Amino acid sequence: MNMRSRRIAVTIAGAVLLATASVQAQTVSCRAEAGLTNKGANGTATSGHDQRAASYDVDLSSGKAGDRPTVTVSIHPHSPAAAAAADRPTARIDRILLRSPFKSEAIAQPATFAHGGSESEAIATFDAAAVRTLPEGDVNVILFTPDGERLCRIKKGDRETLTGHRR
């Protein structure tokens, strides 16, 4: 594990809180690719054409909250400059879940969730124990946006590295 200092900024009610912490962390990254907007009952995009939304970079890291092991999920638009120049801005992130790709009812809920510098950036913290209780194998990071769900898959080995648990 590598030891590094991390500076985290979270906006709460307009005030920016900064914290510097020395943590032992493993980091895993994936991309929640762009997908079609929400579809109506007939399978066509509700906007009437194939409009694509932006993709997101997803970083997962291990850490601790007090004496409790955690997995932190940090999300930001893949290309902030491209998103700003696009006809349509990057969608707001409403919620983040971790879910088994094999059993959709197996879900880990975050202990905390906050937006970053904008509504298209978010940080969620999960108890490592909740991530370990998901069925063995890969785990999907699910982002909920007004444009629909985005997901990226974390492979079994990376998941075990994050949680420090081998099955």
Structure description:
The chain is built from three helices and eleven strands. With 167 residues, the protein is mainly β. It is 11% helix and 47% strand. 26% of the residues are buried. It has helices at 80-85, 128-132, 156-163, and strands at residues 2-12, 15-25, 27-32, 56-65, 68-77, 95-99, 107-108, 112-115, 122-127, 139-145, 148-154. The chain has one domain. The two termini are 20 Å apart. The longest helix is centred in the C-terminal third of the chain and has 8 residues, at 156-163. The strands form three sheets. Strands 3-4-5-9-8 form a five-stranded antiparallel sheet. It has a four-stranded antiparallel sheet with strand order 7-6-10-11. Strands 1-2 form a two-stranded antiparallel ribbon.
Give keywords.
single chain, 167 residues, mainly beta, five-stranded antiparallel beta sheet, four-stranded antiparallel beta sheet, 3 helices, 11 strands, 47% strand, globular, disordered N terminus
The side-by-side strand order for the widest beta sheet comes to 3-4-5-9-8
Termini separation (Å)? 20 Å
For the biggest sheet, the summary is: 5 strands, antiparallel
The tally of beta strands, per DSSP, is: 11
**Oligomer category:** single chain
Order of helices and strands: EEEEEHEEEEHEEH
Low-confidence region ranges = 1-24, 36-52
Number of helices: 3
Tell me the β content. over 45%
Class of secondary structure makeup: mainly beta
Radius of gyration equals: 17 Å
- The average pLDDT score comes to 74
Q: Tell me, what's the shape?
A: globular
How much helix is in the residues?
10-25%
Number of domains: 1
